[in-house]
Amino acid sequence: MSKMIFYPNTELGIDLKLITKEPGRMAVGEYLDGAITHDGEDHFTFVQNDQEKKLQKVVQRNPHVYEGTYINVNRKKDGTLYPTFNRPQFSEHFTFQDFCQGAADELRIISGKSDDR
């Protein structure tokens, strides 16, 4: 029998209640901003944020100019770029060394695309 591998925070076979601003079903690929609560055995509730209020008070700092598998690149207000590492999910098949090699490869690829050379 094969061993099934899931992401660390995967919940299988749950009941999910959605509380949204608009009635009806979500479109495939649609994103909602909000909070999810584990409120019972195998039961979760998602409550959508009020987008108008959020858009008025949220100011994105240092937006991503590149989102990769191993790293992201952000741009500061002064225009300079800086990389950040994504959080890896290590396993016996994906080690710290694998992550470092992948990040190095990704940095090499995107370093040639920078407009701030």
Automatic annotation (TrEMBL):
Organism: Segatella copri
Name this protein carries in UniProt: YopX protein domain-containing protein
Domain of life: Bacteria
